[in-house]
Amino acid sequence: PLLPAAFEAIGYNLVALPMGDAESNELGLKYSNNEVCYPATIIVGDFIKALQSGKYDLNKTAVTITQLGQCRATNYPALIKKALQDAGMSQVPVISLAGLDKTENPGFALDFKVAGPIVLNSLLYGDWISIMYHAIAVREIHKGDAKRLREKYLDLAKPYIVAQKSKQLIKLLETAAEEFNAIEVDDKVYPKAGIAGEIFLKFNPFSHKHVSDWLMDHGVEVCPPTFHNFFLKFLVNVEFNRKNKITNPKLPAWSMDLIYKLIYKRVHKFEKAASKFKFFEPEPDIRTIAKWAEEVLCLSVQSGEGWLLPAETIQYIKQGCNNVVSLQPFGCIANHIAARGIEKKIK
């Protein structure tokens, strides 16, 4: 919900599509095929449904998507482009935020030096609001209090993100923590369950059939996944690939260390603000999480979520959360290997 504000700050009018539904599934199957992974089916359907709705001028609209390296998501732009052509909307450009092929879309430019800090602020803020919401929602006396606060503080954050006011955003997170603390809760001890798995499936409630709500309805405290680690794992990947001569990164090792320090300086500022929350638990840094992953598999497993998926599972266990729902979509080969393949070893 915060990404449109982040993109407005860098000059783009971004629309985050609403949650998928049964129509998304049907359109996805109609305009792609049932051999692709489940997220691809829904995403293709979401795009077709939005563009057929009449809300957008097809001559002035593009669709965009992020990509994971080395997994089926590498094929998403081509898959989406073919679907748009088959649906009679070939004039709509498809932009990859990962590839940024300027010969394909010369009018689109994204300065990562500018966009990076803005998106990082949005992800960190959103992650901590999610953690606070899930800790309170299962305990609240008056149902709906936590959800109301979550929506309130997501909305209040948007002007600060657009104006690139990170200090005010951090202060707002502190205020949110204090207001979440004020919600009336019971004193029961709830069993905990963590959510791990493929990125789309674990963050998209329609695709996982609202498993978080189902768990909370049954008296289980949900430990939600965090979004920022998914993007920060590239720091570990670059380091590992350089050391093992898998790739030769353009950036020297010292510059990657500097980037790491700058990112975690920002991470710790948000964490300090969130520490006002009464159920606060510090988050381990990505290098620590990677070391845990190395206990069960090699860090060269980078397709899709790769080593991050078992690392998340281990993180939950180390934080006292011994139940983990691990979500893999149909057709996601990379995550079946990195999740089910290491299940026995983790146990």
Fold topology:
Layout: H1 3-9, H2 22-31, H3 38-51, E1 63-65, H4 76-86, E2 94-96, H5 112-137, H6 145-162, H7 166-181, E3 192-197, H8 199-203, H9 211-217, E4 221-223, H10 228-243, H11 253-274, H12 286-293, H13 308-318, E5 324-327, H14 333-339, H15 343-346
Parallel strand pairs: 1-2, 3-4, 3-5
Q: From N to C, what is the helix and strand string?
A: HHHEHEHHHEHHEHHHHEHH
The rough form would be described as globular
Low-confidence stretches: none
Q: Rounded to an integer, what's the Rg over CA atoms?
A: 20 Å
Strand order of the largest sheet: 4-3-5
Beta percentage is 5-15%
Tell me what you see in this structure.
A 3-stranded parallel sheet has the order 4-3-5. Strands 1-2 form a two-stranded parallel ribbon. It contains 15 helices and 5 strands. The model has no long low-confidence stretch (mean pLDDT 91). Helix 4 links the parallel strand 1 and strand 2. The longest helix is centred in the middle third of the chain and has 26 residues. It is mainly alpha-helical.
Pick out its properties.
two-stranded parallel ribbon; 347 residues; 15 helices; globular; three-stranded parallel beta sheet; mainly alpha; single chain
Characterize this entry briefly.
With 347 residues, the protein is mainly alpha-helical. The protein has helices at 3-9, 22-31, 38-51, 76-86, 112-137, 145-162, 166-181, 199-203, 211-217, 228-243, 253-274, 286-293, 308-318, 333-339, 343-346, and strands at residues 63-65, 94-96, 192-197, 221-223, 324-327. Helix 1 runs parallel beside helix 6 (145-162) and helix 12 packs across helix 13.
